[in-house]
Amino acid sequence: MSGAALHPTLTPAAEEAAAQPAFQRMPAEGPQTPRICLGAGANTDAAGMRRLKQIGVNAVLMGGPKIPWDEAELRSRVSDSVRVHLRADVPVGAYLSGGLDSSLVAALAADNGQAGLMAFNGRFPIGAAYDESSYARELADDRGLDLHISDITVDDFIREINKVIYHLDYPVAGPGAFPQFMVSQAARQHRKVVLGGQGGDELFGGYARYLIAYLEQCLMAAIDGTLNNGNFVVSYESILPNLPTLQRYKPMLQDFWRDGLFDTMDRRYFRLVSRGEDRQSAVRWDLLGAYSPFETFRAIYYADNIEGESYFDRMTHFDFKTLLPALLQVEDRMSMAHGLESRLPFLDHPIVELAATIPADIKFEGGRLKRVLVAAFKDVLPSRIVHRTDKMGFPTPLNEWAKGPAREFVSDVLSSQAALGREFVDNRRVLASLDSETSFGRGFWGLFSLELWQQAYHDRTHEFQALKAELRRAV
C-alpha cells in the first residue's frame, strides 16, 4: 500500500482491541484462540513470537495549512473503485440497506452498466423501527434495480443463531451478525459476489455518536463562555440544525449523560463506545485480573499519528483501528458462511488515502455527518436518501424477541446446568436482567452470545480433542 497518508505501525494493543470490539473482556473458560485482525499482516520472529503489523492513518492537522480537497476527485475515486470491484466472471449483486453508503455503491454499480442489478435488503416485519426497506425500494425504483427483500423472523433467529455463533468462532458484542447472516443467505441463492458499503462511516464520519460527543462539548463551552476560544470543528450554533439526527438516540443520550457529564474527552468517548456497564452485575470482574479496558482504549485513542487536539480525528481513528476491523470480520464470516464473496469499494486504498488528507474542520464542519460524501454525491441519489436523519445501522429486535416469543428458547440456553455453572458469569442474573433491557441495549446480547459460544465450543472440548487425535492417527 502506498501514499503518504498511510504508514505501517506495530500495534499490539490494536490487535487486542480489534478482537474485543466492545473493549470489555469477554470471559471464556478456555484458552484464547489467536487471531489476526483484518487489514493486518503477521510474521514470526526468531523466538517464535508473533508480531502484528497493522495499517495506520495519518490525520491532517485541523487548523493547519489547508490541503485542497476536490469533490470531483473524491467522486472519481469512489466511482473508479466501484467499477473495479464489479470485475468478475459471474454477475455481481449488492447489499442495499437504504442508507447513504450502500445506496451510493448500488447506484454507482447500476450506472456502470449493471442494468437490473440485483440488490438485497433485510427487514424485521414487526414495525417501522426495524424496517428501512422503503429507502431501498426508492433507490431500486430510481435505478431499475432488482430488489430482493428478506423478512427476518423470530423463527429464523431460533433456528439459525447457533449457526451464526459457529461461523463467528467467538462471541461478539453486537447482534448485527444475525441479520447479516440472513441477508447473505438470501443473496447467495442468486449471486456469488456482492458489493457492500462498509467503511463509509469510519472514513467520512457517519456515526451519530460523533454528534453526541460534540454536542456535550458545545454545551460545556457555552456554559464556560469559551465558545469563541480556539479553532473548533463545531459551534453551538452550527450543531443545532443537525440535532434531529439524534431523535432515535434518546435512550443512548439518557445513558450517556447519566454519569460523567463534562468529564475529559477521552473518558467521554470511552463511555460512548463501551458496553461494559451493561454487564457489570452479571460478570465476576474480580476474577478477571488487572485488565483495564480504558487503558487499552487510551493506547489507541492517543496514537502518535494523530497530532493536535481534534476530537473528531481521535474518535474516527479509534473506530478505524478497532470498530472497523471488528465489523469486517463479521462481514467476512457471515458472507462466507454461505460461500458468498463480499467486496467493499469504500476501503480501496486510494479512497482511504484521500479521506485521511481531509481535515476535521472540513470533513465534519458544523457537525454534519458524512458532509464531504454528501457534497460529492448529492446529485447521484434520491434526495430522501441523501438527507435522511433516521439511519440506525441494522437495528435488531433481539431484546423484544427474548422478552416475548423467544423467551422459552433464551431461558433454556441460560438455565442449562452448564450455563448455571460458569465461573465468570452469573447467568441467573443475565436472565433476570432481561426485562429491564432497553430495545436497543446490548448488555443482554453480549452475554447471551458468550453463553451460546461456550456451549458450541467450550462444552464440546472433549469432542474436538477426540477428533484431533483421530486425525493424527489417520496421518
Can you describe this structure?
- The chain has two domains: about 55-400, HUPs (Rossmann fold, 3-Layer(aba) Sandwich), CATH 3.40.50; about 400-475, no CATH class.
- Strand 4, helix 3 and strand 5 form a beta-alpha-beta unit.
- The protein has about 475 residues and is α/β, with parallel strands linked by helices.
- It has helices at about 10-20, 70-85, 100-110, 135-145, 155-170, 175-190, 200-205, 210-225, 235-240, 250-255, 265-275, 295-300, 310-335, 350-355, 360-365, 370-375, 385, 400-405, 405-415, 415-420, 425-430, 445-455, 460-475, and strands at about 5-10, 40-45, 50-55, 90-95, 120-125, 145-150, 195, 340-345.
- The strands form two sheets. A five-stranded parallel beta sheet has the order 6-5-4-7-8, with helices on both faces. Strands 1-3-2 form a three-stranded antiparallel beta sheet.
Summarize this structure briefly.
The chain has 475 residues and is α/β, with parallel strands linked by helices. It has helices at 12-19, 71-85, 100-111, 133-143, 154-168, 177-188, 200-204, 208-224, 236-239, 250-256, 265-273, 293-301, 311-336, 349-356, 360-363, 371-377, 383-386, 398-403, 407-414, 417-420, 427-432, 443-456, 461-474, and strands spanning 6-9, 40-44, 50-57, 92-95, 118-123, 146-151, 193-195, 341-343.
Percent of residues in helices: 40-55%
Instruction: Tell me, rounded to a whole number, the average pLDDT.
Output: 84
Largest sheet: 5 strands, parallel
Q: How many strand units?
A: 8
Q: Return Rg in Å.
A: 22 Å
Structural class: alpha/beta
Distance between the terminal alpha carbons, to the nearest Å?
40 Å
Q: Based on the structure given, which CATH architecture of the largest domain is correct?
A: 3-Layer(aba) Sandwich
Shape: globular
Approximate strand percentage: 5-15%
CATH superfamily placement of the largest domain: HUPs
CATH topology of the largest domain: Rossmann fold
CATH class of the largest domain: Alpha Beta
Low-confidence stretches: 1-54, 60-66
Strand order of the largest sheet: 6-5-4-7-8
Number of helices: 23
